[in-house]
Amino acid sequence: MRLLSDFKSMVEDAETIVKLTEEMDSTDVSLLEEAMGIIKELNKSLDRFELTQLLSGPYDKEGAVVYITAGAGGTDAQDWADMLLRMYMRWGEKQRYKTKVVEISNGEEAGIKSATLEIEGRYAYGYISGEKGTHRIVRQSPFNSKGLRQTSFSGVEVMPLLPEEAVGIEIPEEDLDISFTRCLGN
Fold first, then answer.
1. C-beta separation of 115 from 65 below 8 A
2. How much of the chain is helix, strand and coil, in % rounded to 5?
3. Which of 5, 26, 84, 106 is deepest in the core (most CB within 10 A)?
4. How far is CA 138 from CA 7, 92, 156, 165, in A?
């Protein structure tokens, strides 16, 4: 509530200054500059507020594990998955996050079949969690001898990177069901 009253107060201050300049015969540039300064500060405050609201999920402050898999499209999809991996690594490095490829499975001709990338840093999961889903690219295939347009897909899963001490999960013994089956061939 306090933040809302601060925003309201800033708007009222700017409105008062604008009304004063409208009532005066000569335009006072310093008053208009003061109103502009208040409006700029209000915009910055609103942007910060919006960002904190967007990154307010339970795991948004954590690092991220990004799992990329090549989908339909053969070699082109594997190349697309490799492009996505490089893109996420560069983004992480640009944000000054620690990036590490944990697992990678290379494609036969080019690209990757799958890869797991860890991104460690504050709010890494919050920022990159929107990337989860299926990513599509349509391009002239460098792997097609006819140079035809190819549509390729890659899947991206994003999970929070939780500290090991936070994973203390206990399952009550009565909830455990361990059973065995045996298959006998004839």
1. no
2. 45, 25, 30
3. 84
4. 46, 25, 17, 43
Q: Which residues pair with 92 in a beta bridge?
A: none
Contact of 60 with 129, CB cutoff 8 Å: yes
Q: Among 126, 117, 121, 106, which residue's Cα sits nearest to residue 157?
A: 117
Nearest to 120 by CA among 91, 158, 161: 161
Q: Please, where are the H alpha helices in the chain?
A: 2-23, 29-54, 74-94, 124-128
pLDDT for the residue 186: 54
pLDDT at 12: 82
Q: Which residue has the tokens 């983004």?
A: 91
Q: How confident is the model at residue 134 (pLDDT cuts 50, 70, 90)?
A: very high
Token pair for 117: 């990338």
Contact status, residue 121 vs residue 62, Cβ threshold 8 Å: no
Tens digits of per-residue pLDDT, 52-75? 788 888 888 889 999 999 998 888
Residue 4, both tokens: 């809302």
Give me 2's structure tokens: 């306090």
pLDDT digits (tens, 9 = 90+) for 65-122: 999 999 988 889 999 999 999 999 999 999 999 999 999 999 888 899 999 999 999 9
